[in-house]
Amino acid sequence: MTYSGEVRVGGPADVHELKDLMITKVAVGPMDNNAYLLRCRATDEQLLIDAANDAHTLLGTIGDDGIASVVTTHRHGDHWQALAEVVAATGARTHAGRYDAEGIPVPTDVPVDDGDTIRVGQVELTARHLVGHTPGSIVLVYDDPHGHPHVFTGDCLFPGGVGNTHDDPKAFASLIHDVETKVFDVLPDETWVYPGHGKDTTLGAERPHLPQWRARGW
């Protein structure tokens, strides 16, 4: 079946099958958070992005093979409610942005800096540090050697705009700058965007609206 990226809490997961990587998207919790399970097709190693909520659903999605790692995109509580339970059940190593780790109650095994590589089996993800939604938010870029890139943006980029900066002009200016220079300026329009809530998008669909976002300030 064709991947749509449209999932709902309590509904089935959606699976994006790439040549080297399988991406399973599931919605969990009262804030409709997205969690993404990445599986290297060569090794079957798995990595979870955002153990947001509902450990039962996440562990069922993970299955008997377990996970090697969990990456938390940022410190906000709706993105780590199930982290302790998932880690206890799987023994996974935890990753988070260096400047958000202190705000996550589960210890971070691997503090992540801008440009760091995170591996799942033979697949490499590049972390980019974006400041504004939180001090240490990270996004993960998979530059698929067989196709276009894929980027997991947490709450830094959604269809229709950047993440919430709580009416703080300095935070917005920082976030829009980082999103433009570290995402839009270096990745093509075909890049698939997997956000922390809601539907997926592409950079090409959002790029024409960047001036509008800057003008409105959110």
Automatic annotation (TrEMBL):
The lineage of its organism: Bacteria, Bacillati, Actinomycetota, Actinomycetes, Kitasatosporales. InterPro entries: MBL_Glyoxalase_II, Metallo-B-lactamas, RibonucZ/Hydroxyglut_hydro. Residues 32-197 form the Metallo-beta-lactamase domain. It comes from Streptomyces plicatus. It comes from the Bacteria. Signal peptide: none annotated. Pfam families: Lactamase_B. This is MBL fold metallo-hydrolase.
